[in-house]
Amino acid sequence: MLSGMRYSFECKTAAVIAFVFLLQDFGIEGRLIQGTNVNLGEALQFLREYSNEGSEMCFRLNTARWNYATNMTEINKKRMIDEQTHKAKFDKVSWKKAITFDWTHLSDPVAKRQLKILATTGRASLNDEKYNEIHHLVSEMKDVYSHTQVCPFNNFDPQFCNISLEPDISRLMSHSKNPAELLHLWKEWHDKIGPRLKNKFMRYVQLANQAARMIGFSDAGDQMRHVYEDAVFEREVMETWRTLEELYKEIFTYVRRKLLTKYGPEFVRENGPIPVHLLGDLWGQDWSKIFDILKPYSWSKDVDVTSEMLLQGYTPLKMYQLAEEFYTSLGLKSMPPEFWKNSLFDKPNDRKIQCTASAWDFCNGVDYRIKQCTKVDLQDFVTAHHEMAHIQYYMHYAEQPYLYRDGANPGFHEGIANAIVLSISNPTHLQRIGLIRNESNAFETNIQFLLQMALKKVSYAPFAFLVDQWRYKVFKEGVKNMNSAWWDLRLRYQGIIPPDLRTEQQLDPMSKKHVPADIPYINYYIALLVEFQVYESLCAAKGHIGQLHTCDFYKSREVGSILSDAMQVGKARHWKDVIRMITKGQSDSISASSMLKYFQPLQQWLHLQNTNEEIIGWNVSSDDRMLFQPLQSKSNSVRYATFPLIILLVSGLII
């Protein structure tokens, strides 16, 4: 394990580590842990060894993970856990070596940045006992989450209480129109997850904060944000949400009126927030699942070409071959032979596997794979292109050092993959490849397509934004009143309330896997913004004329050249430099303007649909807040609205 790193760190740590907490004068770098070694040669040698051994460790771990994901036996699970344990030890030893260097005073910017990344990520600052404890806690929380099952509606016989999140609960939440059944499923899942994980999560918060503060951060949230290497990151992110808020509230108002018509005032209050269980999933993050309720033009055809795919004899293999052809049409890379040999496109019948689609990099520059239990339908056709975008990214930055084999920031991988999905999933592209036979530019068709996209994208934005706002708050202010803080944020940003009384004995954020699994969520919000920003820039490079949502950059070598240059960089340059590359110097920051441009025709249509509404937004009554703050005294109603502006400003202050 890393020649030159086999020290007795326990006895030398005090001599070589300098804790620098000069809070008042030197900014974040002046606060971070570092040592005294300024020998550039030693630093470069360590980083070379780390890159080589990190790649080998990645290969071994991903091989074990792949073997378990595609054949879920106890033997394969044990081997995976063993490799995860080795990886944790490797990370800790690497961190201890990295912090012996005074990286702020090294002359080589590459060495300085890589050492800084190594020194400021992860939880290796904890002693061995606590380091193992936090890894064990996260593993336990993930295990509870993945094995939780609930009872079916109107049947609490224990032998039938075996309904899992995927695919059972998700399918029922998206298809059932019985509000009693939806309430049952929502309550069962949240009540069985949150209370079981609350104490574990509280201990996790304590340990995560300890690890962050030992490195020099104010808390674990501060450490999470630091990966973006941007002093004004929080301010810029908040500004993007303010930009999107008006569009979101137009969609919200339209959806609420449709739900009021469907379920009546017993379930949906006119001008009030929406109960979360009526929106198509457990979290109210993707509203497209209830499109049948929201569809504005019943006679207009949806853009779903599944029947045409079946008619033309599509297979999972053909779907991936078409995905490859899309990328080679841009001048990007073909999939290597190992990809076709080792990937898994069909669900096997002889063993249990994890069916969630995923792209894999085995860190050896040769072996790249996709795992998907592929169905012949439009959704999986889109997924095939999405996952292959990740493979393209892996292949393009394969020559970078191990630490730089990643997206430019934590949202870039998803952002670029989804930008490509915007091109291949619109009617223009589907017609070009023969899946839509008759071109239709009817106004109704365009509006329905944009509405479906908005129900997936715009409706997701506030949820993606607020998950980590809650987590930052917990890290900063402590674990008191965590559940009411969660619903405060959901009411403020989404206009959503729980369908049932919630108390502090529950912990509803744990219902979303990323929270107990210790996975940052703001990355998904950043990815959403990057997706539209990259898409608009690529469409401009292609020379697209017309409404943005009709752009398809299939066969554009200009687009391929931009993507290739951006992906080759990996994480070797600051993400703002990569945005500058993609936008040809027009921007160096995240922005929501491209998203607004994409949905501009829909926003105009929604404004007309909502003309007779009292407000564009939601009023909050004392009864709404009493659902999750039952001990508070009743207060006056608060209005969350877009118009007039003074009401929006005041409501932001009140809540």
Automatic annotation (TrEMBL):
Keywords: Carboxypeptidase, Disulfide bond, Glycoprotein, Hydrolase, Metal-binding, Metalloprotease, Protease, Signal, Zinc. It comes from the Eukaryota. Its EC number is 3.4.-.-. Zn(2+) 1 binds at residues 386, 390, 414. Chloride binds at residue 228. Zn(2+) 2 binds at residues 386, 390, 414. GO terms for biological process: proteolysis. InterPro entries: Peptidase_M2 (IPR001548). Disulfide bonds join 151-161, 355-373, 539-551. One of its GO terms (molecular function) is peptidyl-dipeptidase activity. Gene3D superfamilies: 1.10.1370.30. Its cofactor is Zn(2+). The active site is at 387 (proton acceptor 1), 387 (proton acceptor 2), 514 (proton donor 1), 514 (proton donor 2). GO terms for cellular component: plasma membrane. Glycans are attached at residues 71, 154. It is an enzyme of class 3 (hydrolase). Binds 1 zinc ion per subunit. Belongs to the peptidase M2 family. PANTHER family: ANGIOTENSIN-CONVERTING ENZYME (PTHR10514). This is Angiotensin-converting enzyme. It comes from Aquatica leii. The lineage of its organism: Eukaryota, Metazoa, Ecdysozoa, Arthropoda, Hexapoda.
